[in-house]
Amino acid sequence: MNIRPFLILSLVLLVLPGCAPKIKMFGSTTTDPLKEYVVEGEGEGKIALIQLRGFLASQPKQGMFRSTASQVQEVVSTLKLAEEDDAVKGVVIAIDSPGGTTTASDILYHEILDFKERTDKPVVVAMFDVAASGGYYAALPADWILAHPTTITGSVGVIFMRPKVHALLDKVGVGVEVSKSGEDKDMGSPFKPATPEEAALFQAIIDDMANRFYTLVQKHRVLADDQMAVVKTARVFTASQAKEIGLIDQIGYVQDAFAKARSLSGLPADSKVIVYRRDRYPNDNPYNTMDMANPPSPSLLGVDAGFIMPPKAGFYYAWPQGLTQ
């Protein structure tokens, strides 16, 4: 088999993006402006539909040939457009996320809350497959939270994930020598097991971050003590369980979220639902995502293999089981 054509093609693909940045071989980029598209309705006034999907992070997502904006970047950009357009009277945020980093989740919460306070435009959340942990955290400022009948939500809490390789190094006879300025400078190192003292220090950090989450849940949802005790177990809930315990307001579909946003905004039933994207979809509808060409995940024989990668060390408002979806 002659592999020369494949080598030439690979070289062209590697060189061409740097030589001709204006040629869009792999879809839109973060430098392309967001544009408005109507996905539903023909009447007066607008409801802006904003997508919040995937693992929540503040860093851009890096693909093989290009990067795309992070969820924080995109949500802040779309909220700004919705704020500047006087015809936009309300916002629906579609959430399908297992959560993410504590900071990204908190930034999204802050930006959505600040948008509401600046504009007095109502915000409705529509949950899809998963809106857990940081995904639920970001939903808290909404005036109304709706979940799909099959949504999984909850997981209110914090998890600290860090890879450990010290056992493997011991097996192959490799060590890491560390010089440090303070006793706890290398706490959490993947090259050694945690001491009881280090475990206690980490637990104190986790408890502090979890208490912030609990405080915000209580502020926005006003749960009874017995309800809050169940929520603090960090378990996940079905939509019906979440409604019963008070984490959400309604079970329904995205069209019900549009109807609620129109009602809260004083708009007619046929008012427009618009989205902000860099790409145009043929036969557009509310279920399309914000960007047609997201960077690919690592794959094995065409199957997403991102779940085999070790987690980046850090504190997360995340449901770990949802990260493999």
From TrEMBL:
The record's Gene3D superfamilies line, in alphabetical order, gives:
2-enoyl-CoA Hydratase, Chain A, domain 1, 6.20.330.10
**Peptidase S49 domain mapped to chain residues:** 118-266
Report if keyword Zinc is assigned: no
> Which SUPFAM superfamilies does this chain map to?
ClpP/crotonase (SSF52096)
Q: Which InterPro entries match?
A: ClpP/crotonase-like_dom_sf, Pept_S49_SppA, Peptidase_S49, S49_SppA_C
Keyword entries, A-Z: Hydrolase, Protease, Serine protease
What does the similarity note say? Belongs to the peptidase S49 family.
PANTHER family, A to Z:
PEPTIDASE S49, PROTEINASE IV
Q: What is this protein called?
A: Signal peptide peptidase SppA
Lineage runs: Bacteria, Pseudomonadati, Thermodesulfobacteriota, Desulfovibrionia, Desulfovibrionales
Q: What is this protein's gene name?
A: sppA_1
